[in-house]
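User: Please fill in residues for this 173-position structure.
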């Protein structure tokens, strides 16, 4: 057709085969790191809250005097730890190190109603992704709750302990 201008041919484009794969590799590294970071810190905060809940449950059991030796075999601490472990399911909690102690000096005699006790629950953070996302700590950590005893023992002949349930993993003093 005479008089009709033909479009100029476009300049030849460079070959961009594989560019999408390279871009995906760069972007996905950042996105996966962010995703694992959110997941790791979500699990960490979940564990912290669960440890606090476990310490509160343990304090409740100590406060209401579920600390006596129910079957008379001398294992009041183990029975209390088993009751705490049965009351909650917390990931990373070291049930054997769960402990309580009176805050009054030991020379004041056996426990009394309205006495303050400190309950400690030890837990260890769960690390995911092989350390890809660093967390502030990886060693076991304590969570402590202080409470007041409202009753001591169930039977009239119950003799409360003077020592509490010590942490078997604590260094000797």
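Assistant: Residues filled in for all 173 positions:
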């Amino acid at each position: 057709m005479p008089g009709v201008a033909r479009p100029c041919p476009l300049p030849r484009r460079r070959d961009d085969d594989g560019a999408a794969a390279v871009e995906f590799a760069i972007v996905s590294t950042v996105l996966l790191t962010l995703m694992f970071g959110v997941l790791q810190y979500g699990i960490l905060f979940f564990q912290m809250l669960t440890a606090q809940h476990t310490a509160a449950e343990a304090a409740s059991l100590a406060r209401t005097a579920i600390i006596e030796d129910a079957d008379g075999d001398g294992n009041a601490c183990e029975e209390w730890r088993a009751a705490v472990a049965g009351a909650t399911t917390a990931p990373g909690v070291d049930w054997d190190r769960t402990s309580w102690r009176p805050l009054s000096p030991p020379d004041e005699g056996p426990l009394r109603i309205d006495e303050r006790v400190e309950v400690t629950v030890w837990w260890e953070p769960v690390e995911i992704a092989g350390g890809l996302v660093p967390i502030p700590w990886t060693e076991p950590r304590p969570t402590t709750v202080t409470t007041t005893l409202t009753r001591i023992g169930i039977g009239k002949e119950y003799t409360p302990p003077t020592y509490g349930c010590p942490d078997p993993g604590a260094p000797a003093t």
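For context: The CA atoms of residues 40 and 128 lie 6 Å apart.
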